[in-house]
Fold:
Amino acid sequence: MLLPLRQKILGGLIILLVGVQISQTTLTFSKIWPLKRPTAFIFAGQKFASLAPLLKGQKYAGYYTDTNVDEGRALLELLQAQHILAPLILDPENLDHRYVIINCVNLPRTIEKFKAMGARPVAATPSGILLVERPEFGP
Structure:
């Protein structure tokens, strides 16, 4: 059965309008979608995770860094290290503990400093964090 000319024109217009709407919706979603993608979050405390089993049973540990702990990335790393190592309490810039975590930019100079203090290395993480023991402070 053949459709009258009016119905053919009306049907063609509806199909055209639906096509335009679909293309506009596709363009809108293609602009919005990149904005909704999840962003990567780097948890700085993860680089301290391998030290947790070694410090199990300890109440306190020293935390030494050669950067300013009161600002920026160094503060973030200290707080996230504290979070991942809890219930251990990190004592920043206090070396009078049996174990001291070293997170430094200038590692060779820091290693010499701790050797002079009689500290011995216990562990190192792949990201360059060191755990040293100062035997004179006992168990």
Summary: The mean pLDDT is 86. The longest helix spans residues 5-36. Helices lie at 5-36, 72-85, 107-116.
